[in-house]
């Protein structure tokens, strides 16, 4: 067993450098003879002014860590670098959540986080990050600690989405300057995350969509129809105003959303969420009816007192009618999937499929989201791709053959010469080697 003395013995060749071993490695410190891993190296420099030790991110070589330590000591003497206070994860979480709620923490695009995102981050921090990592100092957190948290959550049979959301919250916290100073090596990188959960992949066919709408009360059809034939999110449906529906021009404008918990109108999910959607003919009459019924209100889908409709009451009422009619229920979000599926089918049938158009209509911030979510609905598959390649090669081969089957084109003679002069016989020669002699 390695003693404490052995651990604390520095290496004179690399002053201020500490080796860091894997958890299951029997070696500690500079006792590399017992090392069974590929250690990283961390440079250190003592700040007399702060009375604290400044630590570097991990380096692959001791030389790189040594160079960092030398530069850090010079910067500390010149006063251009400081050693950050030893914050714990709990302390960072307190200040970060307060800043998040106050709107001082922004997304990478510079926008304030949506209330639902703030609530999700706060719940992940409270339920998972604080209990497992809260008492640790930021400088003690590395990817091994976070990976251990992931394995613990999976062992408790938590869903992959819960695990991924927890890591996302921790990753957002580590964008705080205090965290980056205390632990420059982002501990949320290089993690082995579980694959994302695959939710209920339900969408209605064109015929089924028509039946589902027909059995509903007349007052509810415009809401469900707008979800199915325009792909609006639930909050966007609740926040849709009369002025957003331009029947004359055949355009529906998505400009805001609604947060149920905060009971407030908010910005769309992203900049891409603000979009224009063409009004299909099948939806036009439903929207005209809704405009007539909402006269005197700002919202097109408003209750009698002008407030946004209740999605829970709407769903319960629809489920009763669908159950009575023997129809399979569908949710508002699955109606959004239905719109995507119908658009993919319509564009593909016309031979004009465009993934960028689908991304714009769905309000996705990235084309990657569109492909990940609806790629399986898009035209083409692995089998079809192989068939297309076969047909292309056959057409290319036919292009260099004449009507009588003889080769033509600039390379036709060369191809024939190679084929005739390097014929490979079935039997090998007397020395056991394949013969490549010209055919007499």
Structure description:
The chain has 17 helices and eight strands. It has 440 residues and is mainly alpha-helical. The radius of gyration is 32 Å and the shape is elongated. The model is unreliable at 1-7 and 421-440 (pLDDT under 50). It folds into three domains: 4-78, no CATH class; 89-182, Orthogonal Bundle (DNA polymerase, domain 1), CATH 1.10.150; 206-348, Orthogonal Bundle (hpI Integrase, Chain A). The strands form three sheets. Strands 1-2-3 form a three-stranded antiparallel sheet, with helices on one face. The chain starts with a helix and ends in a 19-residue tail after the last helix.
Question: What does this entry show, briefly?
Answer:
By secondary structure, the protein is mainly α. Helices cover 46% and strands 7% of the residues.
Task: Provide the low-confidence segments as ranges.
Answer: 1-7, 421-440
Per the CATH scheme, the topology name of the largest domain is: hpI Integrase, Chain A
- What's the SSE pattern? HEEEHHHHHHHHHEEEEEHHHHHHH
Strand order of the largest sheet: 1-2-3
- Count the beta strands: 8
- Find the CATH superfamily of the largest domain: Intergrase catalytic core
Straight-line N-to-C gap: 79 Å
Rounded to the nearest angstrom, the radius of gyration is 32 Å
């Amino acid at each position: 067993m390695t003693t404490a003395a052995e651990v604390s013995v520095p290496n004179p060749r690399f002053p201020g450098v500490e080796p860091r071993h894997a958890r299951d490695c029997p070696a500690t410190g500079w006792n590399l003879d017992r090392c069974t891993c590929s250690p990283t190296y961390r440079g250190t420099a003592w700040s007399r002014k702060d009375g604290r030790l400044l630590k570097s991110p991990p380096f692959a070589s001791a030389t790189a860590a040594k160079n960092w330590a030398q530069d850090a000591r010079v910067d500390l003497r010149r006063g251009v670098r400081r050693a950050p206070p030893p914050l714990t994860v709990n302390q960072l979480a307190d200040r970060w959540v307060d800043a998040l709620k106050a709107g001082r923490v922004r997304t990478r695009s510079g926008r304030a986080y949506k209330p639902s995102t703030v609530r999700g981050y706060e719940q992940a921090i409270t339920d998972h990050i604080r209990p497992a990592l809260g008492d640790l100092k930021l400088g003690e957190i590395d990817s091994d600690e976070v990976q251990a948290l992931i394995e613990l959550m999976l062992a408790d049979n938590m869903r992959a989405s819960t695990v991924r959301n927890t890591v996302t919250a921790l990753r957002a916290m580590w964008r705080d300057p205090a965290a980056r100073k205390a632990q420059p090596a982002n501990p949320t990188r290089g993690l082995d995350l579980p694959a994302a959960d695959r939710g209920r992949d339900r969408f209605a066919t064109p015929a089924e969509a028509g039946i589902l709408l027909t059995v509903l009360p007349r007052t509810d059809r415009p809401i469900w129809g707008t979800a199915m034939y325009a792909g609006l999110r639930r909050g966007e449906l609740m926040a849709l105003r009369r002025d957003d529906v331009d029947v004359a021009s055949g355009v529906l404008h998505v400009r805001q959303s609604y947060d149920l918990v905060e009971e407030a109108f908010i910005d769309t999910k992203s900049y891409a969420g603000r979009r224009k959607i063409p009004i299909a003919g099948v939806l036009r009459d439903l929207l005209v009816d809704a405009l007539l019924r909402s006269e005197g209100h700002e919202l097109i889908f408003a209750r009698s007192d002008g407030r946004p409709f209740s999605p829970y009451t709407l769903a319960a009422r629809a489920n009763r009618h669908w159950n009575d009619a023997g129809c399979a229920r569908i949710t508002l979000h699955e109606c959004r999937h239905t719109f995507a599926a119908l658009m993919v089918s319509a564009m593909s049938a016309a031979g004009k499929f465009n993934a960028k158009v689908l991304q714009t209509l769905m309000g996705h911030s990235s084309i990657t989201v569109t492909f990940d979510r609806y790629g399986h609905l898009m035209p083409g598959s692995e089998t079809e791709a192989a068939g297309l390649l076969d047909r292309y090669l056959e057409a290319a081969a036919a292009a260099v053959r004449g009507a009588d089957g003889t080769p033509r084109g600039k390379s036709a003679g060369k191809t024939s010469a190679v084929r005739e002069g390097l014929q490979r016989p079935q039997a090998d020669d007397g020395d056991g080697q394949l013969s490549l002699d010209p055919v007499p």
